[in-house]
């Protein structure tokens, strides 16, 4: 069997980005992976919003934040990518999503303040176009109505209004979702709204509640693959600007992103093993033979290079036992606190975060992991995303940006070595 140019191990943000960038550059790509952070994300693409985490300083200008971060944290993976590489990577990523019907927007070179399901404000780099009118409503504090639904857990319009006491003209309403009763799930609601009649029924239920509202916010359930069509249809029916607010995980944002990649990567030639993990690796001078799955369905895949995008504990790229943390696929050394008692701070919400959330693999400047002796583990093995050491993406609000930018840099270097 002819080896693939590259095997991407993982199908979270880092894995999807690595597959996209490699395929766009003409490499033959095979990818394996299961559920990851992308399936639970809000749909926001964060670049960098908080630094230093111990001060909780929030930045509107992510490039000023990056400059400060690079001065303070010389081991952070963002020190190995330039601002230009980061923006190019994110632009290529969002252009792909747009081509798949998933429109993203934001301000040139700025983070945007946007509403969360809790009613708090989060600064992010790019957000789904379906959330944009909410940004304008929030900024202007214009009269607005937020609607929630009987039976939908984890999304309370009333809570949002209570937290946003600085938005006195924000009103709320709870209604029944047309045609559905009992406990509601975002995915079912999104599917049902693909039917234009359900949108008409929904608008009919909301219309009497509009009052002076100029904007109407809904939980993010407005369609799966056709969100902007649903938003525009509701705007026409209601005569108001309509926006989505992300729901708590598992939300519809993850399935929307995954569906976009499922649609868009195959035509680029990416061969995908979904819901299959790499269970064994044979390393040789020319590359790798990786086993995907186990038992009778196991498949052996030869590849000249590999990109490890398996995430941290949530993604299962790192596994912990009573004494230490291990990298699960190759057994690459993991930088980690010296002993288990140092993994966590005494306080759960300690502003500095927990040392275990900085654990990960060390790499060279091109994101090639380092082996036990401090030299490159394999000349054509790369790592990208949450598995990288010295970053706490959740506290710094840099999850997707870090994953996408490091995947970009890894693929860029790989291209120079393969051609
Ligand atoms: C609840 C939640 C909300 C989030 N919200 C946001 C947000 O608003 N904005 C933002 O920017 N980011 C957000 N993130 C972060 C983001 O989704 C990613 O978790 C993060 O960017 C890291 O991505 P990753 O691809 O490196 O790792 P992961 O997302 O953890 O993906 C790891 C992948 O590797 C696969 N894998 C693991 N082991 C193997 C193996 N042996 N073989 C093959 N595949 C394997 C997993 O199945 C998975 O597909 C959120 C994450 C979570 C969990």
Description:
The structure is a single chain. The chain is an alpha/beta fold and 419 residues long. The chain folds into 2 domains: 4-102 and 255-418, FAD/NAD(P)-binding domain (3-Layer(bba) Sandwich), CATH 3.50.50.60; 117-245, Rossmann fold, CATH 3.40.50. It is 29% helix and 19% strand. It has 11 helices and 17 strands. The strands form 5 sheets. Strands 1, 2, 11, 12, 13, 14 and 17 form a 7-stranded mixed β-sheet that branches. α1 (13-24) runs parallel beside α11, α3 packs across α11 (399-418) and α7 crosses α8 (227-238). The radius of gyration is 22 Å and the shape is globular. The model has no long low-confidence stretch (mean pLDDT 95). It binds flavin-adenine dinucleotide (FAD). Flavin-adenine dinucleotide (FAD) binds next to α1, β2 and α11.
Number of helices: 11
Beta fraction? 15-25%
Class derived from helix and strand content: alpha/beta
Shape: globular
CATH architecture of the largest domain: 3-Layer(bba) Sandwich
Helix content: 25-40%
Which distinct ligands sit in these coordinates?
flavin-adenine dinucleotide
Q: Using DSSP, what is the number of strands?
A: 17
The CATH class of the largest domain: Alpha Beta
CATH superfamily of the largest domain: FAD/NAD(P)-binding domain
């Amino acid at each position: 069997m002819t080896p693939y140019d590259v095997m991407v191990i993982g199908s979270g943000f880092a894995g999807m980005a690595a597959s996209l960038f490699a395929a766009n550059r003409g490499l033959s790509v095979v990818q394996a992976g299961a559920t990851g952070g992308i399936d639970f994300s809000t749909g926001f693409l964060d670049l960098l919003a908080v630094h230093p985490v111990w001060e909780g300083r929030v930045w509107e200008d992510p490039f000023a934040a990056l400059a400060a971060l690079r001065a303070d944290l010389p081991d952070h993976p963002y020190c190995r990518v330039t601002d230009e590489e980061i923006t190019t990577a994110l632009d290529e990523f969002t252009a792909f999503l747009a081509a798949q019907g998933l429109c993203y927007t934001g301000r040139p070179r700025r983070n945007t303040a946007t509403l969360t399901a809790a009613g708090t404000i989060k600064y992010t780099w790019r957000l789904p176009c379906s959330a944009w009118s909410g940004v304008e409503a929030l900024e202007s504090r214009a009269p607005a109505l937020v609607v929630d639904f009987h039976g939908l857990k984890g999304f309370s319009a009333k809570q949002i209004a209570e937290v946003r006491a600085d938005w006195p003209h924000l009103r709320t309403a709870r209604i029944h979702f047309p045609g559905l009763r009992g406990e509601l799930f975002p995915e079912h609601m999104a599917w049902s709204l693909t039917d234009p009649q359900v949108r008409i029924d929904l608008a009919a239920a909301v219309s009497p509640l509009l009052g002076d509202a100029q904007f109407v916010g809904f939980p993010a359930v407005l369609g799966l693959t056709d969100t902007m069509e649903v938003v525009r249809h509701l705007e026409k029916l209601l005569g108001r600007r309509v926006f989505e607010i992300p729901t708590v995980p598992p939300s519809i944002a993850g399935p929307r992103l995954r569906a976009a990649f499922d649609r868009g990567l195959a035509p680029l030639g990416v061969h995908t093993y979904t819901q299959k993990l790499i269970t064994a690796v044979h390393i040789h001078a020319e590359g790798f033979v990786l086993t995907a799955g186990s038992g009778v369905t196991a498949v052996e895949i030869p590849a000249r290079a590999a990109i490890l995008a398996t995430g941290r504990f949530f993604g299962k790229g790192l596994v912990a036992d009573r004494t230490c943390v291990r990298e699960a696929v190759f057994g690459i050394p993991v930088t980690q606190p010296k002993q288990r008692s140092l993994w966590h701070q005494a306080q759960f919400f300690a502003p500095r975060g927990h040392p275990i959330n900085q654990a990960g693999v060390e790499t060279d400047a091109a994101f090639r992991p380092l082996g036990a002796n401090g030299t490159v583990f394999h000349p054509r093995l790369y790592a990208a995303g949450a598995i990288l050491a010295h970053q706490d993406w959740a506290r710094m609000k840099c999850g997707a940006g870090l994953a996408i930018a490091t995947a970009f840099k890894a693929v860029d270097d790989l291209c120079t070595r393969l051609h």
